[in-house]
Task: inverse folding
């Protein structure tokens, strides 16, 4: 088991979904990622919040044994995001984004994390992702996420980033947008040609695809009879994937496929309740049970 | 290897797709189904065409060793359908439908087919499907397809039909519409509760789901770098599924999963060219190769 460092956002979300409305709940890419990964390995979190960040949320994150030494409190308000899934559970409609202290995020990485071999750069400015990556030359496995905004505004930086990370996580629309290919196989191949060893394409309720020079692996989503709030599913998925890799410390192609299935399982829990609430109710045994269910779902 | 009987439509299609436009090409549910299934077992086709049906198309179907004794020629014009995939490769926009002789389709099933143990009722009026089914009381495995039109207009008949067949093939929108459930797991469970032993939900480029009382199995679509024309993919899929079951004459739950994968492989060929043209170029070896590829795609 190795330490896994994640750098990203901790936020306060307001979510409208067919299941109801939740205000100022704990969100953010690094939150979902770190809590998901904490079920597999030791996780170190680097993010920034404002003076208004509720102490109970900091305690909640710490409760999952996530190391929060790198969770800085800055003068100002915490990053806020408001979104709705009322029209379409598979696609968030952003109502409001207030970056607040996150706009000036310049992560100050605690010295004791400098030797972390497993690193995840959640969705932030790709130039900042590149800057951080340069400080982890000795890393063993690095992953990153991005979003449509950076694809549109910082394409060159993102392309450079892709050539330097081991795994890039994008959703299907982002993969199509970045590659300019509407065909998923062509999009995956194009992204692999840019340098990352693994390209992971997230397809929401349809599962995910893992592309590498060795070929492709397809995983369906875990079948749920109710989805409450899809927020953070992608980051939870990445947290399960990276957490499993760091736990097993095994970079074989076969282990990547198992990691994809563990990411799938973790995402299935995330969407069953608002915020990270579902993770307060599960144990490692529940993860194992769903992993077995998922294996059955894909075994001919 | 057992005989497989299919009752459905033979049509002349005019298709617009991003790959171009094709006029008056061979189409119809029973055409796609029978040619796909012919790679696995002996297929008997029951359908109707008009006086204008080109002889070369009849020869083309016969060329796949499909028995066309039940392909009746009636006074009138052949069923025509015109559709476009220019806006969305995953969803046909119907431009024109002319039922012609198909409107009065009352299948006259050749006596020598009466003992066929494997039967597929392609998309026709559910009352007609029920009528035919009653004449095959001794069947071993029966499958049927339907469409949104019948769900809206003949719901009760369709429900009755479902309680009498072994396998029902629907696409995801039809499954949601019929069950009134937007959640796929709930939709699948609801359909299974109506009586069919197997519910197969087709999800286009996202693959398919097989539901039964024993649980679910998920298969991705075969990854293609180019889709020319998705017309007939669902019928080709059902043809591969039913053809494989009839060939192996094995009704075990595990064989159903293999059948689903064979259906997936056959559908992947169908969409690579207009009409059934792709099947003129493949051999059994090509099916085996894609089947192995597909197994690799889903094996962790």
Result:
């Amino acid at each position: 088991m190795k330490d896994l460092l994640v750098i990203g956002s901790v936020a306060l979300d307001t979510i409208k979904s067919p299941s109801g409305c939740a205000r100022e709940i704990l969100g953010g890419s690094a939150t979902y990622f770190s809590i998901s990964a904490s079920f597999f390995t030791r996780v170190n979190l680097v993010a920034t919040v404002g003076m208004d960040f509720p102490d109970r949320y900091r305690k909640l994150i710490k409760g999952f044994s996530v190391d929060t030494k790198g969770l800085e409190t800055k003068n100002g308000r915490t990053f806020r995001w408001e979104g709705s899934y009322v029209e379409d559970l598979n696609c968030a409609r952003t109502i409001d984004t207030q970056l607040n202290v996150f706009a000036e995020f310049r992560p100050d990485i605690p010295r004791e994390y400098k030797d972390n071999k497993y690193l995840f750069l959640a969705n932030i400015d790709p130039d900042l992702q590149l800057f951080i990556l340069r400080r982890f030359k000795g890393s063993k496995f690095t992953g990153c996420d991005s979003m449509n905004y950076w694809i549109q505004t910082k394409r060159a930086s993102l392309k450079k980033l892709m050539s330097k990370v081991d795994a890039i996580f994008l959703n299907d629309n982002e993969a199509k947008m970045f590659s300019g290919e509407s065909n998923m196989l062509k999009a995956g191949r194009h992204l692999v040609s840019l340098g990352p060893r693994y390209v992971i394409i997230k397809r929401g309720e349809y599962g995910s695809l893992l592309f590498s020079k060795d070929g492709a692996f397809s995983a369906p989503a875990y079948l749920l009879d109710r989805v409450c709030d899809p927020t953070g599913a992608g980051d939870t998925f990445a947290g399960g994937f990276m957490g499993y890799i760091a736990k097993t410390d095994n970079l074989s192609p076969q282990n990547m496929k198992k990691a994809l299935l563990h990411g799938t399982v973790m995402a299935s829990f995330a969407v069953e309740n608002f915020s990270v609430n579902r993770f307060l109710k599960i144990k490692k045994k529940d993860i194992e049970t769903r992993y077995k269910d998922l294996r059955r779902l894909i075994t001919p």
Remarks:
- Chain A is about 35% helix and 25% strand.
- The mean pLDDT of chain A is 97.
